[in-house]
Design goal:
Number of helices: 6
Largest sheet: 9 strands, mixed
Structural class: alpha+beta
Shape: globular
Helix content: 25-40%
Radius of gyration: 19 Å
Amino acid sequence: MFNIFKNLFSTDSSTSFYSFYKKMIGWRESGVYPFPYNLPSSITFPGDFWKDVSKIYKETDQDGLERAIALFWADGELVLTSVVKGDDQSVRSSHNIRVNYVVHPTRRGYLRRELMIDGKVTKRTDVYHKKAPKKVTVEYLFNMHTHPAQEFNGKKVYSFFSLQDIKSLILSQAVVTGLVTDKLWLLVRTSETPANVKFENFTDADVTIENLKEKFKLGVYEAEFNKKAIKK
């Protein structure tokens, strides 16, 4: 069995977010996670994802307010929602994501696909009726949050993950969490991530890339906007 999980990714692999999402759902359902050295070397994201991330980043940059972000996989599309100063539970429960297929008003043989968030249509696309799915799937994936910039010596600086962020990830049994600053950061649970950590022995200053990898055994990814997330 371990060979199956060991070969999910090779050490030189790069994967699309769709492939990563499918694996992530499997890890969450089975409770068996990949070895740290078998995580993909990089993850690519669709263009619409980066448009949403950039929009939320700019909103945070303008008003200085932290935002919580929830990611959903909705009928083959990555969907982001956000709230100001929301916690993980409120983000998940306060947004209703639906995808409807309705008869197209003008194009014969076509359906209109409508992505709805909280009862409002946010995106419409035309779909040939034979290509419409028999079943529409909407799945919650994971949460991220933003950190507003701070001024230091006339420059913008951003704080990293907090110790509370790491504690929440490990104790909740979540698979992935993310942080949006002027970059995108992702943390991924692995087979070696400890279930019990004496968090009283750590402070925010201990939350470094090296410690996340070596002490917490998490996969760490960094991405410039509109580029691949690279494993550190």
